[in-house]
Amino acid sequence: MSTADTSVQLLRNATVLVDVGDVTFLVDPMFSAPGENPPVENTPNERRNPLVPVPDVDTDHDAVVVTHRHPDHWDEAAAAELDDDVPLFCQPEEADAFTDEGFTDVRPVEDETAFEGVTVHRTPGRHGHGELAEQMGPVSGFVFEGEQTAYVAGDTVWYEPVAETLDRFDPELVVLNGGEAQFVEGDPITMGVEDVAAVRDATDAAVVVVHMEAINHCLLTREELRAQTEDVRVPEDGERVQL
């Protein structure tokens, strides 16, 4: 539906629209109204989620991609609002859950698949460190390869498979989930300043950081990240970054 070149538009949190040529992917839709959901448990504050509304922007899309089914990446509001027959790409472990919700064109990605001229690759992620990462369950990133290539890393920290993905695909656009989300105990489960800087040092791509200031356990602010990281885009909700 898009006529733009490769770009990403942040809606809120990890919900983004990725344009690759003429194809638009809606990634990790979370459409709940502010305060509709409880706070993430065992975190440093009790603010109800989401913290902010979805901006009033055009969300037309050709397909949906869900990196994992944590409620800040896929919620009941998205399940109710999206068309049942939308092409929906996901982790193989979670395909049955989408089918059970009534979606009729669920496309689990084991390694790679094709969609309207774009090759969609599923890539590894590690949602935290050590035992906590295991408890958080499987997560994925996705690479969208057309005339240009976009890498949406998903909920992961910096670790070797992220570096390997950057080396393998050499993307022009990288979208990272920042916010340095964390619980009362343990290390962060999404990228913080050092993780983002490591990605910045590992690629010549345009680096865009989302997953900020929308969920109660995301403690790193946009202002803090901008102040401590060079040559990285940290968009506001509704903002588009285009190559």
TrEMBL record:
InterPro entries, A to Z: Metallo-B-lactamas (IPR001279), RibonucZ/Hydroxyglut_hydro (IPR036866), UPF0173_UPF0282_UlaG_hydrolase (IPR050114)
Superkingdom of the organism of origin: Archaea
GO molecular function terms listed in the Swiss-Prot or TrEMBL record: hydrolase activity
Metallo-beta-lactamase domain: residues covered: 11-211
Record's keyword terms, sorted: Hydrolase
Family annotation (PANTHER family): L-ASCORBATE-6-PHOSPHATE LACTONASE ULAG-RELATED (PTHR43546:SF9), UPF0173 METAL-DEPENDENT HYDROLASE MJ1163-RELATED (PTHR43546)
UniProt name for this protein: MBL fold metallo-hydrolase
SMART domains (UniProt xref): Lactamase_B (SM00849)
Spans annotated as Disordered: 32-51
SUPFAM superfamilies membership: Metallo-hydrolase/oxidoreductase (SSF56281)
TM region positions: none
